[in-house]
Amino acid sequence: MDQRLSLITLGVANLTKARKFYVDGLGWKASAASDDAIVFIQLGGIGLSLFQHDALAEDAGVTPGGASGFRGVTIAQNVPTKGDVDAALKQAAKAGGSVVRPAADTSWGGYAGYFADPDGHLWEVAWNPHFKLGTNGELILPPPK
């Protein structure tokens, strides 16, 4: 199997509200492939899609569960500076999300904080001095040893 991630789909309770948060609030651009049932957003080399929670469970062939509580998954965005971490958390809160862990210095030498979108999906925003970012903001990890 190729070592690649193409798309992250978030199951949301209200697609209109989720679109308002990500597109209107965060200023991310919805793709022309979006329609009334799904929103696609280009995030560097991968895509983010927003899809009704129960419809996503049906598509995967699983029973819908509750959307509350920790899901065991976080999504992260690395940014070029510490100030960018603070700015992103502020924008997420202004857009209707909630800061669940304010930005602070980390044990690994970076600076990071977390916000939750209106459905409770957790996003880490981090400045990591050990990872490079490409010209389009894409994460460049150190090569395998």
What does this structure look like?
It is globular and about 40 Å long. The chain folds into 2 domains: 1-61, 2,3-Dihydroxybiphenyl 1,2-Dioxygenase, domain 1; 72-133, 2,3-Dihydroxybiphenyl 1,2-Dioxygenase, domain 1 (Roll), CATH 3.10.180. The protein has a 4-stranded mixed sheet with strand order 4-7-6-5, covered by helices on one side. It has a 3-stranded mixed sheet with strand order 1-3-2. It contains 3 helices and 9 strands; from the N terminus they run E-H-E-E-H-E-H-E-E-E-E-E. It is α/β, with parallel strands linked by helices and 145 residues long. Helices cover 22% and strands 33% of the residues.
Write a brief structural summary.
By secondary structure, this protein is an alpha/beta fold. Helix content is 22%, strand content 33%.
Summarize the helices and strands and which ones pair or pack:
Elements: E1 7-12, H1 15-25, E2 38-43, E3 46-52, H2 53-60, E4 74-78, H3 82-94, E5 98-105, E6 111-116, E7 122-127, E8 132-133, E9 139-140
State the end-to-end distance. Answer: 20 Å
Whole-number total of structural domains:
2
What is the chains' assembly state?
single chain
The gyration radius over C-alpha positions equals 16 Å
| Helical residues, percent | 10-25%
Strand content: 25-35%
Task: Please state how the strands of the largest beta sheet are arranged side by side.
Answer: 4-7-6-5
Give the low-pLDDT segments: none
Number of strand segments: 9
Query: Which architecture of the largest domain does the CATH hierarchy give at level 2?
Result: Roll
Q: How confident is the prediction overall: mean pLDDT?
A: 92
The CATH homologous superfamily of the largest domain: 2,3-Dihydroxybiphenyl 1,2-Dioxygenase, domain 1
Helix-strand makeup class: alpha/beta
Please state the overall shape, judged from the principal axes of the Cα atoms. Answer: globular
CATH class of the largest domain: Alpha Beta
Major sheet details: 4 strands, mixed
